[in-house]
Automatic annotation (TrEMBL):
<dbReference type="Pfam" id="PF03352">
    <property type="entry name" value="Adenine_glyco"/>
</dbReference>
<dbReference type="InterPro" id="IPR011257">
    <property type="entry name" value="DNA_glycosylase"/>
</dbReference>
<dbReference type="InterPro" id="IPR005019">
    <property type="entry name" value="Adenine_glyco"/>
</dbReference>
<dbReference type="InterPro" id="IPR052891">
    <property type="entry name" value="DNA-3mA_glycosylase"/>
</dbReference>
<protein>
    <submittedName>
        <fullName>DNA-3-methyladenine glycosylase I</fullName>
    </submittedName>
</protein>
Length: 191
């Protein structure tokens, strides 16, 4: 069983963030912290979709290029992307060039704009917070889906979102702090 790992700095962390570098910085500064605002939520949703089948480190290394390519994840701007924008994105070596994922990002921006007439993207995502959040002590106890992520996936699909499967939505819930994803004993647990 794998619990928190103590790094060379003497600080216990989730095992995937044990060594210095990009992943540890993401773990310590951002992962599991609540984000606010439509653009922040759309960015995380988009990046989680692009991550599917790839390492999260790859996405983090390309994050600034994604922000530039997708106009800071401004939903109105991305929702208006056309075939010329798709061609530009497919030629952009700074991002993951996958036509289905690019199309999903545009479709999801359009669905985000449509949500404004209701509760909005942020409120919708937060509505799936579990009544009893998980408290895993080891990596073996960490789930990859949950009843909440299954329900979130179904609701987002119903509202026109794509590339939002239950596993991807569970990762999103962790990333944006819908619940605390850190292992018990990790220095970030409960912060």
């Amino acid at each position: 069983m794998t619990g928190p790992v103590v790094g060379e700095d003497g600080v216990p962390r989730c095992p995937w963030a044990g060594g210095p570098g990009l992943m540890r910085d993401y773990h310590d500064v951002e992962w599991g912290r609540r984000v606010s605002g439509e653009a922040a939520c759309l960015e995380r949703l988009t990046l989680e979709a692009f991550q599917s089948g790839l390492s999260w480190a790859t996405i983090l290394r390309k994050r600034e290029a994604f922000r530039a390519a997708f106009a800071g994840f401004d939903a109105d701007t991305v929702a208006a992307y056309d075939d010329a924008d798709r061609a530009r994105l497919m030629a952009d070596a700074g991002i993951v060039r996958n036509r289905l994922k690019i199309d999903a990002a545009i479709a999801n921006a359009r669905a985000t704009v449509a949500l404004r007439e209701q509760e909005g993207l942020e409120a919708l995502l937060l509505s799936f917070a579990p009544d009893e959040p998980p408290a895993p002590a080891t990596t073996e106890e960490v789930a990859t889906t949950s009843p909440g992520s299954v329900a979130m996936s179904k609701e987002l699909k119903r509202r026109g979102f794509v590339f939002v499967g239950p596993t991807t939505m569970h990762a999103l819930m962790e990333a944006i702090g819908i619940f605390d994803p850190h292992l018990v004993g990790c220095h970030r647990r409960g912060t």
